[in-house]
Automatic annotation (TrEMBL):
Keywords: Signal. PANTHER family: MEMBRANE-BOUND LYTIC MUREIN TRANSGLYCOSYLASE C, SOLUBLE LYTIC MUREIN TRANSGLYCOSYLASE-RELATED. Residues 108-201 form the Transglycosylase SLT domain. This is Lytic transglycosylase domain-containing protein. Gene3D superfamilies: 1.10.530.10. It comes from Snuella sedimenti. Residues 1-23 form the signal peptide. Belongs to the transglycosylase Slt family. The lineage of its organism: Bacteria, Pseudomonadati, Bacteroidota, Flavobacteriia, Flavobacteriales.
Length: 308
């Protein structure tokens, strides 16, 4: 019996020794750390597709300057993986709202990617005061019929904001002559782009010398279009169920003041937070509506939220 016990103890000691030796071999020494780093993580140069376009207008990729600028945006946006995955997730939720409106106005579908680079498909606020998914300035919104005040700001209404963006882009296309220049003007303004075209005596966005932001603008849009259209090509792996979906809603007409949106929400089996999630254009806890204007408030269909 003692012989067996000694044998087992010896086997156990050998096992522990083996584990210790294995652990030492696998520990991050200078040599094996560098080997593991090289073998476990790789960054690849990307091949810029031979044919890229924006809104049907070809990108002149045989021009080495254009090729390098496109390569930069593909690299930056491919290897910013967390941000890329969020764009896929949000696009599934918001593109179906934007696409039919773009089609209704005759604006190319590619402009939905402009909204991606403008705001990351969030209700962002810029230092200059632009707001919402389409980053609309107060003056532009009001010129195109949006109500903007402390009580209601329709720049946060995705449907109405998309319509304003379409109107602005159509005017830019008519004035500047191409969709690429119209996209640039969304960033730099019609007057700014028109002035630079005149000063530099050129007719194409790709021939303009522009500031950093506007100079990268079109390339960023095309990069996001390329990546979001071909996810696996750029290393993004997800399932359909990993993406975000729009919660179905129905519209409730309101043509009077609402004194308390918390109580208003309770009438529909939701709370104030959920009401605001679906109606971010309602900026306060009440609605003034002295003019008895007709508003439509989105209410989520029953069963999508567990409200306590």
């Amino acid at each position: 019996m003692k012989i067996v016990e000694k044998a087992l103890a010896f086997v156990g000691l050998l096992s522990l020794s083996a584990l210790f030796i294995y652990a030492l071999q696998d520990a991050p020494t200078d040599e094996n750390f560098e080997t593991k780093l090289i073998n476990d993580y790789n960054v690849y140069a990307l091949q810029v597709p031979e044919n890229l376009d924006f809104a049907g207008e070809p990108m002149p990729l045989k021009n080495p300057d254009i090729l390098e600028r496109m390569d930069r945006e593909l690299l930056v946006n491919t290897y910013w993986q967390s941000n890329g995955l969020l764009m896929f997730k949000r696009a599934k939720k918001y593109f179906p709202v934007m696409e039919p409106i773009l089609a209704k106005y005759g604006v190319p579908d590619d402009f939905k990617y402009l909204a991606v680079i403008e705001s990351g498909l969030t209700n962002a606020v810029s230092p200059a005061g632009a707001r919402g998914v389409w980053q609309i300035m107060k003056s532009t919104g009001r010129e195109n019929g949006l109500e903007i005040n402390t009580n209601v700001d329709e720049r946060y209404n995705l449907e109405k904001a998309t319509e304003v963006a379409c109107k602005y882009l159509l005017k830019s296309k008519e004035q500047l002559g191409s969709w690429t220049l119209a996209a640039a003007a969304y960033n730099a303004g019609n007057a700014g782009v028109s002035r630079r075209l005149s000063e530099q005596n050129v007719a194409s966005y790709y021939d303009l010398l522009l500031g950093e932001e506007t100079g990268r603008y079109l390339f960023r849009i095309v990069a996001l279009k390329e990546i979001l259209t071909h996810p696996t090509k750029y290393g993004f792996n997800f399932r359909e169920k990993d993406l975000y979906s729009n919660v179905p809603t129905y519209k409730v007409e309101v043509d009077t003041a609402v004194t308390n949106f918390s109580k208003f929400a309770e009438n529909f089996g939701i709370n104030y937070k959920i009401l605001k999630l679906h109606n971010p254009w309602l900026r306060e806890g009440h609605l003034n509506n002295k003019s008895r204007k007709q508003y439509f408030i989105d209410i989520p269909k029953e069963g999508y939220y567990d409200v306590q």
